Amino acid sequence: MDGKDRVIKHLEITQGIVNRLANNSFLIKGWSMTILAAAILFITRSNGSNSTFLTLSFIIPVIAFWTLDGYFLWQERLFRGVYNDIRKQDDTQFEMNILEQLNKPKHKWHNAIFSTTLFIFYLMEVFFIGLVFLILKCN
Known about the structure:
Elements (H helix, E strand, L loop, with lengths): L2 H43 L5 H37 L10 H5 L6 H5 L2 H23 L1
Helix pairs in contact: 1-2, 1-5, 2-5
């Protein structure tokens, strides 16, 4: 196998990692929506008793899923940076140097957590829990 073939194989391996991380992020969003639906159902069935406590307790899993989803997005961005470095090579030793990616300004964990898409998605979940809480308080 010559250098270009090794680079192509290395790119395929790296793309597989990026795909798995993106799939994990997708699954996290699905689980988060499922728990949100269950939380809203549970809050509405509670007949207003302890609704403040219930609402606050269901915001905690949303924040946990948000953080975990941000972690997967961060890892995906790091491996996309590795992919970009690999594609510029003429030959490869099949190394995945994540540490080089950590020094790049856009590859910070907090940037991934507060990315536009994650921020809107999880803020809407918090908004819906708050909306259900307000509806129950008014009744």
